Amino acid sequence: MALFDQTRLQSRPATVLDRAFSVLTNTAAAFVAWNDARRTHDTLSQLSAHELEDIGLHRGDIDRIARKTF
After folding, report:
1. Of 13, 67, 14, which is closest to residue 38 (Cα–Cα)?
2. Which end of the chain has fewer CB atoms < 10 Å from its terminal CB, N or C?
3. Spatial contact of 33 and 69, defined as CB atoms under 8 Å apart
């Protein structure tokens, strides 16, 4: 009786189409992250100093928080 390891997937070289799709998905993900950071910055900037203090932030923290999401 022979034992075959069937848990491994057959690998194939990446095609040009695979690489193009990867570039496209990475670009889309970067755009979404940038847009989230922009919206976070804009939303936090609209809050008053008292509202920021209520959530434990100061006006100077906004840029750091927005960069962290990007």
Report:
1. 67
2. N
3. yes
